[in-house]
Design brief:
The protein is an alpha+beta fold. The longest helix has about 35 residues, at about 140-175. It is built from eight helices and four strands, in the order αβαβββαααααα. α4 (about 95-110) packs across α6 and α5 (about 110-135) packs antiparallel against α6 (about 140-175). β3 (about 70) and β4 form a beta hairpin.
Length: about 230
């Protein structure tokens, strides 16, 4: 039991840090956001709400410049002011913004925030266990190697969540009559809109999948959905 105590402490530490981060994020979002009131986007979110059998989908604008969408740990959906400004400027269509909202709804519906809490705690334990083991053979380097390996694991899990949220969004967009074309076209614009951020990063180090991989996954789903059924 004594041997497990450090690992259990790391798991507890991870849970506490995640809770603190979630609280801090919620406070920041409360302070710097307002509910989206755009009529055109509201019509699109109402179509998605109808497809989900919901009264409405509440979306908030987070008053920061970077182009992004996010699902808060408490389940609220946000798009950034930077993203909304690109929509108002005509660089992004309403349907493309709707695809972002659908993607973030996927994160909420699939429980990715709760999964991240569990993963974050487990990763702390894995990092410590690896560092302890590796330090026996590589004193001083064990912690660095353990940290790098854990970061690779985190990136892989994050990419998995993104693919799952994309799949949820595709299904919702089709059911809403919006279709997947805006989802794919937005992916094609994102590198330009974000200044090519991450364009040269190896795929296995990235928290989000490469654009080509995401579009290919959407098209593969479309092919399955369109394939004739044999009775």
């Amino acid at each position: 039991m004594l041997k497990l105590t450090p690992i259990l402490l790391m798991i507890a530490y991870g849970l506490i840090m995640y809770r603190f981060s979630a609280w801090k994020t919620a406070k920041e979002l409360d302070t710097r956001s307002t509910e989206l009131a755009d009529p055109g986007l509201r019509r699109l979110t109402d179509r998605m709400a109808e497809a989900l059998d919901l009264d409405r989908i509440r979306v908030f604008i987070y008053e920061v410049a970077p182009i992004n969408g996010l699902a808060a740990p408490d389940g609220r959906i946000f798009i950034t002011r930077g993203f909304y400004d690109r929509y108002r400027a005509g660089e992004v269509s309403g349907e493309e913004i709707a695809s972002v909202i659908a993607h973030e709804l996927g994160h909420v519906a699939l429980g990715h925030s709760r999964r991240r809490m569990i993963d974050f705690s487990g990763q702390n334990a894995v990092r410590m266990a690896l560092a302890t083991m590796l330090n026996r053979f590589l004193p001083g380097l064990g912690a660095l190697i353990a940290g790098a390996l854990t970061s690779l694991l985190v990136a892989r899990l994050s990419r998995q969540d993104e693919f799952e949220a994309d799949a949820y969004a595709s299904a919702l967009l089709v059911k809403s009559g919006i279709g997947t074309a805006p989802q794919k076209s937005l992916f094609s614009k994102l590198e330009q809109l974000t200044g090519g951020l991450g364009a040269g990063t190896p795929a296995w180090l990235m928290s989000h999948p490469k654009t080509k991989a995401r579009v290919a996954a959407i098209e593969a789903r479309e092919a399955r959905w369109d394939a004739p059924r044999i009775e």
